Adenylosuccinate synthetase
Amino acid sequence: MANVVVVGAQWGDEGKGKIVDWLSERADVIARFQGGHNAGHTLVIDGEVFKLSLLPSGIVRKGKRSVIGNGVVLDPWALIDEIARLTKQGVEVSPDNLMIAENTPLILPVHGELDRARESQTGVAKIGTTGRGIGPAYEDKVGRRTVRVADLADRATLESRVDRLLVHHDALRRGLGLPEVDRAALMAKLEEIAPQILPFAAPVWKVLNEDRRAGKRILFEGAQGSLLDIDFGTYPFVTSSNTMSGMAATGTGLGPNAIDFVLGIVKAYTTRVGEGPFPTELQDADGQRLGERGHEFGTVTGRQRRCGWFDAVLVRQTCATSGVSGIALTKLDVLDGFDELKICTGYELDGETLDYLPTAADQQARVTPVYETMKGWSESTAGARSWADLPAEAIKYVRRVEELIQCPVALLSTSPERDDTILVTDPFAD
């Protein structure tokens, strides 16, 4: 049976939540494989809005197993709060439908404090983080000093992990002018939260491998976007994990042969939150119009997103690095009513034309987009559920996007509602 990875193919906020929720009807298991509660997915189901940060989008569907994999960094307090919010909306969350990998690293209060202290330093360029401790938690993971979910079950191990962690953090905090960590208070918090988290703990790698052998369909849900990947994104204005499809395997404990289809989520224009280069950014009436029509505010932070024309160069690049099989093109309806639309087909840099985004930060900041102009459409595409419902110019726009990114459209989303989706290729088709 086919297993599908869903990744954002831009800077995030492409509409992954709706697509994953839509696909989860065909899946048996939905697994998060990287990121933390800096991710934000908004689902609209029968007019009700669900806002998720840590929980996989499949949690709102009954009869599905949701998984938080080892590639995620988990804030246990944020998770419990999120579960409580969903419970009030009538969503049941229990060990029967949610598993957390035992080797998942925890985000502790010290991580958020360090994150925010760094971002507030004067004279230091801001990365634009959410201040939620994701970066410092990943640092501790690779520094071999993290506290993991399984450690909560044994007091002696937990104390040893905390002591190793604090040797590092107390030194950093002194340098930043922060007081040393109150060890007793931290231990008390961990001991208090442990019984709420441990019932969800499981050997996810083992369960998922068994599920796969049993022929169950697995949907791997990514967070953020490929352009925020720690290796291939616009470094250093990136997140602290690998956001591309290859991480689905290592972030859950499956091998790469478990991936059958990679679906890249692509917005019909471009947005970005936070700092960093953005070649097609619009700081004019068109950019403002895109932001207002697209309701471009972050699910987690509420920060206004920067908006610009569709950048085919970047999407072609991310489709290559993530091995995208097909894209889900979202928010086409936001482009309704524009007389003209522009698509970036290349960059100019120092008199040369480039068909990719260079790696060097100074070059990324200096590239200027080369645009192709297309005729817009006045009719509405909102709620379209078949190609016949789309204006001819909208279809031409979609086909041109396919040509430029060298990847076919598998799904087309025309509103936040789950059913307002045109299916071209079912990623789960055998």
Notes: The radius of gyration is 22 Å. The chain is about 30% helix and 20% strand. Residues 259 and 293 are 35 Å apart (CA to CA).
